[in-house]
Amino acid sequence: LTLPWVLFPKPSSRWLANRVLTLQSWFINRFIYQLFLPINQAGHKWTTILMSLMIFLISLNMLGLLPYTFTPTTQLSLNMAMAVPLWLATVLMGLRNQPTHALSHLLPEGTPAPLIPALIIIETISLFIRPLALGVRLTANLTAGHLLIQLVATAAFLLLPMMPTVAGLTAILLFLLTILEVAVAMIQAYVFVLLLSLYLQENV
C-alpha cells in the first residue's frame, strides 16, 4: 500500500528534497550507474526506457502481492510482449550498426572447421531462445511464489480450529514467505532489465 507513496512522492519546492525523494533519486542514480557502466556511449540512449521498464515491473510485481488483486506479470503473454520487441530492437541495432561484429557471435573464435555448421545452428537457436527465457523466468518465479503463499495460507486457515499452535507457526512462515516474495518481486524486475542491458551491450 505504501508503494505509490514511495514511487510517486509529493514534489518539494525546497532546495533540499524530502527523504523519500532523496532515496528515490539515489536508487535511480545507482541503478543507472551500475547498469550502464559496461555499456559504451551509444547505448546510453536506452537509459530512459530501461529505467521506466524497471519501475513498471516493480510496480506490477509489488501491487500483485495485495490481496484480491491480479498480477499481470504472471502471464507469459505480457512478459513476452515486453521481452520480444526489446530483444529484437537490440539485435536489429547490432545488425545495422556493426553487422560483422553482430554476426561474429554466431561463431566462436578458433572453432574447428568440421564443427562450424553445427555451432552456427546452436548459437542461432540460443539467440532466439533469449526472449523466451526472459519471459518464462519472470512468469515462473512470480507464479511459484504466489502459489506457495496460497498453499501456506490455506493450510494455516485449515489448521486453525484443529491445531492453533501449528497454525500460528504456519502464519509466521506465511509472513516470512511474503517478505521473500517482496524481495523476489524487486529482484526479478532487476534481472529482467539487467539481461536486456547485457544483450544491448553485445550489440552497441
UniProtKB/TrEMBL annotation:
Which compartment or compartments is the protein found in?
Mitochondrion inner membrane
Q: Which PROSITE patterns match?
A: ATPASE_A
Gene behind this protein = ATP6
Similarity remark: Belongs to the ATPase A chain family.
Of the GO CC terms on this record, one is: proton-transporting ATP synthase complex
Key words, A-Z: ATP synthesis, CF(0), Hydrogen ion transport, Ion transport, Membrane, Mitochondrion, Mitochondrion inner membrane, Transmembrane, Transmembrane helix, Transport
Q: Give the domain of life.
A: Eukaryota
Q: For this protein, what reaction is catalysed? A: H(+)(in) = H(+)(out)
Q: How does it sit in the membrane?
A: Multi-pass membrane protein
What is said about its interaction partners and assembly?
Component of the ATP synthase complex composed at least of ATP5F1A/subunit alpha, ATP5F1B/subunit beta, ATP5MC1/subunit c (homooctomer), MT-ATP6/subunit a, MT-ATP8/subunit 8, ATP5ME/subunit e, ATP5MF/subunit f, ATP5MG/subunit g, ATP5MK/subunit k, ATP5MJ/subunit j, ATP5F1C/subunit gamma, ATP5F1D/subunit delta, ATP5F1E/subunit epsilon, ATP5PF/subunit F6, ATP5PB/subunit b, ATP5PD/subunit d, ATP5PO/subunit OSCP.
InterPro entries hit by this protein: ATP_synth_F0_asu, ATP_synth_F0_asu_AS, ATP_synth_F0_asu_bact/mt, F0_ATP_A_sf
Report the GO molecular function annotations.
proton-transporting ATP synthase activity, rotational mechanism
Name assigned to this protein: ATP synthase subunit a
Segments passing through the bilayer: 49-70, 76-95, 115-133, 139-160, 172-200
